[in-house]
Known about the structure:
CATH topology of the largest domain in chain A: Uridine Diphospho-n-acetylenolpyruvylglucosamine Reductase, domain 3
Largest sheet of chain B: 7 strands, mixed
Distance between the termini of chain A: 49 Å
CATH class of the largest domain in chain A: Alpha Beta
Shape of chain B: globular
Structural class of chain A: alpha+beta
Order of helices and strands of chain A: EHEEEEHHHHHEEHEEEEEH
Strand content of chain A: 15-25%
CATH architecture of the largest domain in chain A: 2-Layer Sandwich
Number of helices of chain A: 8
Number of strands of chain B: 33
CATH architecture of one domain in chain B: Alpha-Beta Complex
CATH class of one domain in chain B: Alpha Beta
Structural class of chain B: alpha+beta
CATH topology of one domain in chain B: Aldehyde Oxidoreductase, domain 3
Number of strands of chain A: 12
Radius of gyration of chain A: 18 Å
Strand order of the largest sheet of chain B: 10-12-8-19-16-17-18
Shape of chain A: globular
Oligomer: heterodimer
Largest sheet of chain A: 5 strands, antiparallel
Amino acid sequence: MPLVTAYHRPTSLDEALDLLSSPGRVALGGGTTLNADRAPSDLEAVDLQALGLDGIAAADGGRVRLGATATLDAVRRCELLGEPLRELARCEQPSTLRTLATLGGLVAQFSAESPLLAGLLVHDAAVELAGPASERSLAELLAAGLPHGSLITAVTVDPSGRTAAARTGRTPADVPIVSAYGRRTDGAAVVVALSGVADHPVLVDADDPTAGLAPAGDFRGSGEYRLHLARTLTARVAQELRS
Amino acid sequence: MTIDVVFELNGAAATATVEPHHTLREALRGLGMFSVHYGSDSGETGAAAILYDGRLASADVILAASAHGHRVTTVEALNVSPEMHPVQTAFVAVGAFQSGYSAGAMILGTLALLEENPDPSEAEIRDMLSGILDRETAYAKPVEAVKRAAAVLRGADTEPFAPLVLDPLTDGYRPAPPDAGGDPPAAPQAVPRLVPSREVPDMAVVGKPEVKVDAVRLAKGNPAFTDDIEPRGMLYAKVLRSPHAHARILGIDDSAARAVEGVHAVLHYGNTPRVKYASGGQSWPNPHPYDQVSFDDRVRHVGDRVAAVAAETVEAAEEAVRLIEVDYEVLPAVFDERFAMDSDAPKIHDEDDTTHICDPQRNLVHHLTAHRGDVDANLAAAPHTFEQTFRVHQVQQCPIEPHISMAWLDSDERMVVRTATQVPFHTRRMLAPLIGMDIKDIRVIKPRIGGGFGAKQEMLIEDIVAHLAIATRRPVRLELDRAEEFYASRTRHPQTITFRTAVDDDGKLLAQDMSMIGNTGPYGTHGFTVQIVSGLRGLTSYNAASKRFDCHVVYTNIPVPGAYRGYGAPQAEFALEAHMEDIARALDLDPIEFKRRNWVKVGDEMDIAPHLGERAVAEEELDSYPKVMSSGIEECVAQGRREIGWHRRGDDGWKAPADRGNIRRGIGFAFCMHGTAIPFLDMGGCSIKLNDDGSFNMLIGATDLGTGADTVIGQIAAEVLGVPLDDIKVYSSDTDMTPFDTGAYASSTTYISGTAALRAAEAVRERLKARAAMLLEVDEPCTIELRDRRAYAADGRSVTLEEIALDSLHWQEQEQIMGTASHVSPDCPPPFAAQFAEVEVDVDTGQVTVTKLVMAVDCGVAINPVTASGQVEGGMIQALGYAHCEEIVLDDDGRMVNPSFGPYKIYRADEMPDTVVYLVQTMEDSGPFGAKAVAEIPKDGVAPAVRNAILDATGVAINDLPFTPERVWSALQSAHP
């Protein structure tokens, strides 16, 4: 637990952005990452719970808008989404943390091993921002980082299409060493995203999934092994979607 | 700056005044909600889960300030009357709690789930439990409890939870035909399958699925654990730990730390007496070497103690720890036991005040040898010889309650230590010289423990809190955080094991030669005895004309290994059962048949046992060897192979499913044999006294870690005294109040402490009979029988135990009827088991999925089949983690890279294989009512059974643990490039 020296609960986006413009202040979503951090740095918590950003609703173009402070549990329960994406939300965290962790917090972490982020990528996720920037695709955001002074307010996704998933982990519920998530809409090519092969989940070419990848290894899987998994799991997903 | 947080707590308005950094867990405990327990800072254990606006959530990761305006429910909300809520009752009825440390979370999760869905599927139940790590039950009984609670709340009828009693498939001695019994019996996983023995009589309390004696306290979340009291004026301790794997401390400047407001003491080598000791919680005299001191000027692993601080708050203590300046001279380190004896390896103990190290220049702590017969001659002459080397890794016990102790000086200025320990009496004795007090002036209290598994068979932090209590004259509390629990408490010994075996043309063993390097890390602690047990288990299971054990125990700079449930046996039995499997394949023999030809049977000698251990004797000094007097292994094998479907090993369609081209399936078997207590060494005491109402207080030194020991020992006494278990009030353990006991280890409690209880109860029974004879005017007290709370004369007349109590305490020839007894055993009757595993291997990725585990155990008479089966279920899953996914990973500098759950992976409820437990009764005459041990044998067979199943599935033998995807994939690549 970091040394939280002050606690703020803004009631408007402007107030939140103003608070977060000062150094040493961090946005607090569900707290599952921030409060679990054992680095003893002083910080002030800006709790986003009163901003009304937890709504989930249908949006234009058949998309679904997921508020940034919607919990992963709320995403899991969202009937506007297909079962595969909801299942990714369920698997992202166990029951006691899923009810706290927020979608915005997940996106802001850029977690390399998040299957849900991979799932959001293939569902053409767009991230709505407050502050100097307005909206950008999740892929762009993951590649370029969160613009300074911005706050994630929502994520929209296109839930349509057929999907397939494959993963390899030490145990069935382990955070996958590598996971592949694919989607195909009518007449379109297969889109695949991988977790566990880069600094953050990435979209890959379904026919050449390791192009440009040089994953760092760790004790769960070397870089070479992760590339092997990337090829194997992508092939499985693509085959299922093309069959 | 403080904040007043106003929220709804259990239906009423509550206000907590907190600092911004306080968590909701801290705030709730401050408000007296003791069911909310610490498991980690990151919330993944679920021990602190509460209902947050109606949803299950870990209070560890919720800032208290964030809870302002929210609705919070803890399990205390249910405790509005003496009766339990139906959900609590359901958990108690099926034996779902062992330590009960996370009981509140499980009950709350069940309430929330059932409110939303009155009839949840098993998958939904397991998903609810996915955030509550349970190191004890394997989740089978909690899942059953939720189903039962749902049924009760829906108004459905439920049957009492009881074992499924089965007919035997064998005559107890000869193997069953391969197809014996047809299909396995159908029953929920949580239900133990019980195969009774005709030799065992039906009893009133023993052998029955009695509800645990501590069930109410656990289900209600009542304050029971070490941390659940808070002495007035308590200080909080924190420990500065070494960032280096090996270093000399040239100096410490603690001035800045002492200047922190609220700091009362800073202790380190410069101001603490240098008294040598060995920290392993073992009988006097502790095995040498005594290579530790409370604070040293040398650190020997990352996480080793450097200094300790006591302060008014945790934050002040942490701040002071950060401000201690230490001047280190960093030294080279060695981690791998195979290189520790090299001439250029760093010398880890070159101090001149540690004696009894075998060869400090080679980091060789012990060189252990034993033999019987001429191994070399048999190996040279044998028609078939085999040699294999296996390497087993380092894992941690992972009790969900970390180590926690508090100490204070009482009104007589005696030292009181309230601590989560498995060995309160050893701790008292070992603590005395370190703090310069007499044993008589120290009192160690063991409250409820949230799991131990051997990690708490150690005097680990008690000296720190005692030193600080003396220095400050205030109560001091120290709790390890989860990372410290991983790298600064105790772990399992890594080993490199080589077996050489000679076999004749009939598949009979001629010789077994076991050589081993055991890695005891930087300190000896249990290094001697764990490796001895490895030798014992590696060389006792099978008969051979000659046997030899040669073991080097070496120092390294890894986190300290110590006792871990199984205590050297899981390592040895992995190597042994893998080796035997491969020999069978090489000889084209069925592995069960090959092992059967050689495994020890009733009447066989346990021929290496007397040559190993603290009281070893040479072959020529021995008159006779201990023998196996009971074994149910054939019945275990028969029941287990039917349950697992052993015949499918020959079904190619099942092994390589046509619709899943990347999957291969396999089934593996391991023969398991363990011990029951340490003969001539383990001792337990018991005292029982009669109360006015005919009930009894029973005082025992045995320590219940959640195993159900208090219940089982109570059942033994109740059976003797003819009363229901509820009439036996068990208290354990407190060095001022209860008789001595060596503690909870070595699978000894039921056998040793249970026999002490049996004898104490028999002494009480004799007085009850005498008093009943007086009241009934019967000449021969021996004709009196006790049952149903009454004493019966042969003619049917009777008096109640209450009448006897009132008469003896208040009326005539007054006396306190009581009995005290102790027990030490010359025997070590082995429990036996057949372990089976079914796996699926993804041959393209190396991912192994364990789909089913079956263990059929001969533990003699299971005093309580529900708690016994719970031990087996939980032990199997710990063993599965050892085999499959758990590992302490160090970087090149000896720092653990995965000191948290998740990266260190333990199984959770929504990913479990099916687990099925069979209890095969035998009558072990040396045990209380026929009992043998059950607690540790479940740890022995899973790793080799999974390994052999992978071999069956793929044809690839893997000799290192754990079976992680890349290791398996690499092995497959090497075998089939």
